[in-house]
Amino acid sequence: MRRIDEKLAKITSGQYSPRDFIITFAKDADLLRGCSATGPDADGRGRPLSAYRADVKRVIESDLADIVLTSLGTAEALADDGAYIRSNATPAVRLSDPTESWRVRGGAYAALPGLPFRSSRIDAVKPVATLGLYGMTFYNDPARDQATLTAYTEFRDIANRVGIRHFLQITDPRVAVETGDADPAAYCNDMLARMLAGIPRREKPMFVETEYHGPAAMEELANWDPARLVVGITSCVDGTTRDCLERVAQAEKHGARLSGFSRDGFGSEDPVLMLAAMRRVVLDGMGSFEAVRAYHDDLKAAGLRPSRALQDDVELTSPLLKAHAAKAA
Question: Could you tell me the pLDDT band of residue 75, with boundaries at 50, 70 and 90?
């Protein structure tokens, strides 16, 4: 059993402790952004793909991530290098890249409702990984949501035959979605639970990541079917380092048992040091304010210049997080 299986077994049996919290590190932006995924070098030129993949190797070697999610191309390159031979991390491949996830320069896809799509054939994934991410978004539109769910049904049928396990990532739409008098978080929770109710056990996702909508929405999902449904949060996408760490702390307190982390989604200075900071707030119970200070100390020790001054990086800028942090104080 890999570490991920041991942790999931403890979570679903009701024996969870903070040591069992799962972190997925996502480095799959080459599938979403193309050449711009690697970021600029010191001279402002685009870095080569080899440098991008070297970042992934550092995370694998750190042993701070339980799952490392990449594109199929990067997974093949890592397998060729034997990157996982001495690692407890589980390799995973992005198994769907719907159109709203395309972030190419000049592209308008992210501003439009998405359509389901898969670049990678599932049978091609099996030689390098037996776990993958399937992502979807609900739009409260019958035609679009029916197409999304039909594509997911077809995916599950193939994945079950090939022998690929998956986890789900449910992301909020980036376009306005009307839910009437209902909270959009309630709509998302209901759509997820409704969908899972019709899926047989052998096809169910190992766990589900959703965006963090606050304590009530998180607790509703976490308490829905705890013996079979493990839930957590997607990666932080904006805000300060304090926002990112406070989000993890609040979600874990209210039932999240895992968190994604994407350096593409949240511009941390160093992924390994950021993963260590996330572990501090969950495993050690360190407050998010203190964890940011410790993170800046780590950056200084590593000779890295922070992108924000400490006094700015310890601020909570998210109204949702600020409101619930104030209640807890």
Answer: very high
Distance between CA atoms of residues 282 and 261, nearest Å: 14
Q: Whose CA is closest to 112, among 133, 139, 136?
A: 139
User: How much is the pTM?
Assistant: 0.95
> Which helix or strand (DSSP H or E) is residue 31 part of?
helix 29-33
Q: What does the pLDDT look like over 129-188, one tens digit per residue? A: 999 999 999 999 999 999 999 999 999 999 999 999 999 999 999 999 999 999 999 999
Closest CA to 243 of 155, 151, 316: 316
Q: Residue type for 73, please?
A: G
Between CA 94 and CA 168 the distance in angstroms is 10
Residue 186: per-residue pLDDT: 97
- The rounded distance, in Å, linking the Cα atoms of 327 and 329 is 6
- Kind and range of the H or E run holding 232: strand 231-233
Distance CA 45, CA 286 (A): 38
**What are the backbone angles phi and psi of residue 244, rounded to the nearest 5°?**
-65, -45
Considering only CA atoms, which of 129, 135, 299 is closest in space to residue 209?
A: 135
Residue 98 in contact with residue 147, Cβ under 8 Å? no
